[in-house]
Amino acid sequence: MANELAQLTGFEEKDVQRALRALALEPFFDDVMYVASGDVIVGAPTGNALRVVGQWPTPEAQLDRLIAAIEAVAADEAQPEEERSKARQLGMSLKGALYQVAIGALGGAGGNIMSG
């Protein structure tokens, strides 16, 4: 892993190892194994690590994306008025009283409902 990262980043392997040791303390990886040489072998990044680097959206960001998509339907004149009205109502609800409920639901799902 460190060798591959060194090649990809252009850093020396010893610098990559030092960075991996520092990141393993948070922890930013699911599995961390220290070997006798002092090197560290890491597994997949945690959800927290992905959020820190912006690769895993927060529940708030996910909800904002959902609200924006619903508002787009509400504004789309090609949609039937009944659908647009429902979308407007849902968007207003999610921006209002249901906001914290939705955030809790998205956060409880590991924040990975709307990835991609």
UniProtKB/TrEMBL annotation:
It comes from Tsukamurella paurometabola. This is Uncharacterized protein. It comes from the Bacteria.
